[in-house]
Amino acid sequence: MVSRMNSGWFVFLCVVVLCKCAGAIGYAKYKNPSQPIDVRVKDLLARMTLEEKIGQMTQIERADATADVMKNYYIGSVLSGGGSVPAPKASPATWINMVDELQKGAMSTRLKIPMIYGIDAVHGHNNVYGATIFPHNIGLGATRDPDLARRIGAATALEVRATGIQYAFAPCVAVCRDPRWGRCYESYSEDPKIVKAMTEIIVGLQGNPPTNSTKGVPFIAGQSNVAACAKHFVGDGGTTKGTDENNTVIDYQGLVNIHMTPYFDAIAKGVSTIMVSYSSWNGQKMHANHFLVSQVLKKQLGFKGFVISDWQGIDRITSPPDANYSLSVLDGVGAGIDMVMIPDNFTDFISDLTSQVKGGFISMSRINDAVQRILRVKFTMGLFEHPMADPNLANQLGSKVTCNLDVFQTTWEHRELAREAVRKSLVLLKNGKSASKPLLPLDKNAPKILVAGTHPDNLGYQCGGWTIEWQGLSGNSTIGTTILEAIKFAVSPSTDVVYQQNPDANYVKGKGFSYAIVAVGEAPYAEMKGDNLNLTIPLGGGDTIKNVCGSLKCLVILISGRPLAIEPYLPLVDAFVAAWLPGTEGQGVTDVIFGDYGFQGKLPRTWFKSVDQLPMNVGDNHYDPLFPLGFGLTTTVAENLRE
């Protein structure tokens, strides 16, 4: 009898325990959206194993991700690197299917923690064919229009969500102090005050935090917004000679006053994530800098979102990269990096970090800090309640046109917004060989126009790097309007528009051209390949200017990610416009040069006379520019006799 009773009690207790365990998962606080976010984070964190926590800290590349990988390794995040797409010219539906399939893998885990998918949407949803491509940041800096940046952020968020993606690695808030740096076009300005103002793009991407929100706590308004990422913390724009991933030599106060200033506003606006810079500060790699990442960013500035590494960022802590990967993991995570971007060797990262925690080299409190930050962002953005993509947003992608009038108005609104941004970004450096004889606005009714140069009929050159591919492409790489097409749209139907890429001096004589438009500049580039110590006009652009402008009245449009050496050519030309990297909407250029709108852009950075002056920024003792920061001639619509 006793034996039977004991047996009965044992069975009863087992049932009770099993029910409690089932209930703990099935009716957990973290699953209840009415609970405060901190309660949900604490509840979920307490349930997680070490393996599940390290999985959340792991971001892998799309090419390595499958539903089984997501499930078996508890992966917390996936990314598309530059040019990494599910298929060439993939539709929103193809993107959504890929993202959702990976999400299903994440949601099949024991705790059903959704993954977050990130992508470099740095001037629109630029990896995706047919998306609206906005001007790069240097052009937006020329507009001096934070509200424009906000609206661009909101449009970008919608287009990113149109492909099922919830996280944009933007904005770059670098303060570029040397145009020889190949990422200078990702910077709004050399002036930290201008960069600070343009962090308003975060409000567009994420939504506007309520007035009573706590400073430093991430905020994402809803399913039409994305998590933003301020980058690259900190000092990436101040390296010696503008060398990418190099050393920024400056004292702490200078670092704060120049390079850290934009992060104050980004954090106040509720930015969800911050990416660490490849560069070093006074010889110490930022990916291993515990003082700046943990003490300053997290504690002093009160940032409560998560800190993410750059692509293979911890690998590059050592020189050469990956010389001692275990040490890189120890130093990177120990410095305060919460999520690690690991395109290739994610199993090595998981194995090394697991061993280091179990061996006592990295504390569990450090792991818990990382994971709670990641979970906070996921809860904040409603990812647990809405893990799958909303297919109703697919029509938000910039090139999508349907017969539905409401959708048509919404999608083309993004391209009109990009066109507005182009108009406002153009900086007029010269207009007429004398003030009394301006060339602009150009005559739309001229009988015959010559268009010349490498850039009028090349959409890829017009968009620059980080467009479709990491380093950008030449040719018609996506959907948009070239400057040549825009010229043909703008002028009278009776005007003969002749395009000749590289005409010689004899070609332009005696052909009856009223004037010439010469568009030259840089080929696309991005980090690592964009550094340039001479900054001359490449691709034979200087010769084209000489050949054409020596015989004809001419306007030169420079398409570039930074100021170039133009002083030798200025006496030859009648008008000169810095158009930066305007993106897909070439009609924004013709709107202004033909006088439908006035010029209003102001230089976002100093235009040097010679590269020997560099680095040279406003306020320097040796400041002697060709054109100073803030320069820009203006015209008005009234003067332009808008038709």
Radius of gyration: 27 Å
Q: Which overall shape is indicated by the principal axes computed on the Cα atoms?
A: globular
Oligomeric grouping of the chains: single chain
Strand content: 5-15%
Count of alpha/pi helices: 20
Q: Can you tell me about this structure?
A:
- The structure is a single chain.
- The protein is 35% helix and 11% strand.
- With 643 residues, the protein is an alpha/beta fold.
- A six-stranded mixed β-sheet has the order 12-17-16-15-13-14, sandwiched between helices.
- Strand 2 (77-80), helix 5 and strand 3 form a beta-alpha-beta unit.
- The radius of gyration is 27 Å and the shape is globular.
- Mean pLDDT is 93; it is low at 1-24 and 399-410.
